[in-house]
Amino acid sequence: MTKIDSLDTSILKLLQENGKRSYTEMAKMLEVSEGTIRTRVNRMLNDKIFEFIIHMDPNKIGLQVQAIIGIATKLGYQEQVANRLNQCKEVRFVGVFSGRHDLILQAYFKNNEALVDFVNEELAQLEGIDTVDVSIELKQYKDSFSYIANGEEHHEYVEENS
């Protein structure tokens, strides 16, 4: 297991604020060497504690409809359905949940017609789906990939090879 200490947490906070921040700038801010920052960042990347991604605004790239779709699967089909949904370009997230739905997914579409086509053509063709419950986002209050709040210290253990 990899231990995340206060310096790692501080580096993560700085990268959350600005993922393009230089190692030199972070080193000055944290009063450590640039080599220390580089080593820590590389270790955390190798240990898959974080990854650099591009977070786009779906609306600005022509995806005007966000849907959260709950799916109830037939017994024994959950993993097969999830694996097939992973391959759909519209789908951003697929997870297994307790409760009414076996799978919940988040998907983006250019318009309502594309969503209807996805449900009636893609989902209808998947063997193992019992029911589908579609909710369309009407208004968004928060969309964040930040898990470390300012002033909050997380010194968690991260399981290797997870």
Automatic annotation (TrEMBL):
Q: Which InterPro entries match?
A: AsnC-type_HTH_dom, Dimeric_a/b-barrel, Tscrpt_reg_AsnC-like, Tscrpt_reg_AsnC/Lrp_C, WH-like_DNA-bd_sf, WH_DNA-bd_sf
Q: Which UniProt keywords apply?
A: DNA-binding, Transcription, Transcription regulation
Pfam families noted in UniProt: AsnC_trans_reg, HTH_AsnC-type
Q: Which domain of life is it from?
A: Bacteria
Example GO biological process term?
Answer: response to amino acid
User: Which source organism does the UniProt entry give?
Assistant: Alkalihalobacillus alcalophilus ATCC 27647 = CGMCC 1.3604
- Molecular function via GO: sequence-specific DNA binding
Taxonomic lineage of the native organism: Bacteria, Bacillati, Bacillota, Bacilli, Bacillales
Q: Which GO terms describe its cellular component?
A: cytosol
Gene3D superfamilies attached to this UniProt entry: 3.30.70.920, Winged helix-like DNA-binding domain superfamily/Winged helix DNA-binding domain
**PANTHER family, sorted:** LEUCINE-RESPONSIVE REGULATORY PROTEIN (PTHR30154), TRANSCRIPTIONAL REGULATOR AZLB (PTHR30154:SF34)
Query: Which intervals hold domain HTH asnC-type?
Result: 4-64
Q: What is this protein called?
A: Transcriptional regulator
